Amino acid sequence: MDSELEAFIPLIPRADFSDPVAARKNLAGLAASVPAPDTSDMEIEDRTVPGDPGVPVRIYRPRGARGAVVWMHGGGWVMGDVDTEHPWASRIAESSGEVVISVGYRLAPEHPHPAALDDAYAVLSWAAEHAADLGVDPGRIAVGGHSAGAGLAAAVALRARDRQGPAIRFQLLNQPGLDDRQATWSARQFTDTPWMTRGKVTEAWRHYLGGARATPYAAPSRADDVAGLPPAYIATAEFCPNRDEGIEYALRLLRAGVPVELHQWAGTFHGSQALLSADVSRRQNAELGAALRRGLAD
Questions:
Q1: Is the pLDDT of residue 15 over 80?
Q2: What is the DSSP secondary structure assignment for residue 9, as one 8-state letter?
Q3: pLDDT above 80: residue 154
Q4: Are the C-beta atoms of 263 and 176 separated by less than 8 Å?
Q5: Could you give all domains of the chain from N- to C-terminal order, each with its CATH number?
Q6: Which of 3, 128, 215, 230 could be joined to 168 by an S-S link, Cβ 3.0–4.6 Å?
């Protein structure tokens, strides 16, 4: 474990998803304590994307942006919104110089799969149709997210490919949750790692699937064919149950001819990039912005 991160482990709340309402309240409190970067050089706007129902989004527009990312927050599909994601969405906009469209998708268990996927896909479609209004090139639209949000982003890319939907230039997947089966080495071994435990992962998938059988659009690791998907940046944390499913997905993409940049962050755990006083966390956050900038470049 990275020594700077290890010092914080006793302070990390041992929340679980058995009480979604309490989990959401706890996350809101934690998010409020995280400083956001300077946003004076960008426009920030809250909108509702038309849909059934409408989807709340927060749009971050840095000056000179040429591309955009449809960004999904983490929280195990159970917690999080555009407010709790503000420190991270604004940080990615600031570090990448690109437009970030932060999606307030519907949460489980009240709204199980495919509600969140439908919301995320609706925002992607809207962004592609309104690229001129957003001031971006319609050929420079990416999808991305943290954790459960990264799994949603991967699922959006699969649906867009299969439906011949909006063109996606790039996938930015940070510590993605991709596989409900929890059969990888890391999922079986890391049962009580900081922040994300095996029990917490199990609860998240139970809420998200709502008793239905997982499809590739819920758990992208189940996809039989990953050819033709957009290029990807995938980041994993060493002491994280999701680690091996992220690495294995990256390898499958590579074998299918999809360009992939894979970064396995030594000494980190799931969500540890939120501990901004640690050097490795600052480097993780900076690299997300740099990877997005590269992915949307000429």
A1: no
A2: G
A3: yes
A4: no
A5: 3-295 (3.40.50.1820)
A6: 230
Question: pLDDT digits over 213-223, tens only?
Answer: 999 999 999 99
From first CA to last CA, the distance across the chain in angstroms is 38
DSSP assignments along 202-256, one per residue: HHHHHHHHTTSPP-TTTSGGG-S--TTPPPEEEEEEEE-TTHHHHHHHHHHHHHT
Backbone angles phi, psi at 97, to 5 degrees: 75, 10
Structure tokens at 146: 């943290």
The β-bridge relationship of strands 55-62 and 99-103 is antiparallel
Looking at residue 28, what is its pLDDT?
94
**Treating both helix axes as pointing N-terminal to C-terminal, what angle do 148-163 and 115-129 enclose, rounded to 10 degrees?**
60
| Interior angle at CA 111, CA 34 and CA 152, nearest 5 | 60
What would the pLDDT profile of 92-141 be if each residue is shown by its tens digit? 999 999 999 999 999 999 999 999 999 999 999 999 999 999 999 999 99
Distances (CA, A) of 210 to 183, 205, 223: 20, 8, 20
**Encoded amino acid at 292, one letter:** L
CB 51 within 8 A of CB 88: no
Q: For residues 141 and 118, give the distance between their C-alpha atoms in angstroms, rounded to a whole number.
A: 18
Q: pTM of the prediction? A: 0.97
Cis-peptide, bond into residue 37, ω within 30° of zero: no
User: In angstroms, rounded to a whole number, what is the distance separating the alpha carbons of residues 298 and 291?
Assistant: 13
- Rounded distance between C-alpha atoms, residue 222 and residue 215, angstroms: 7
Query: What share of the chain has pLDDT > 90, as a percent?
Result: 96
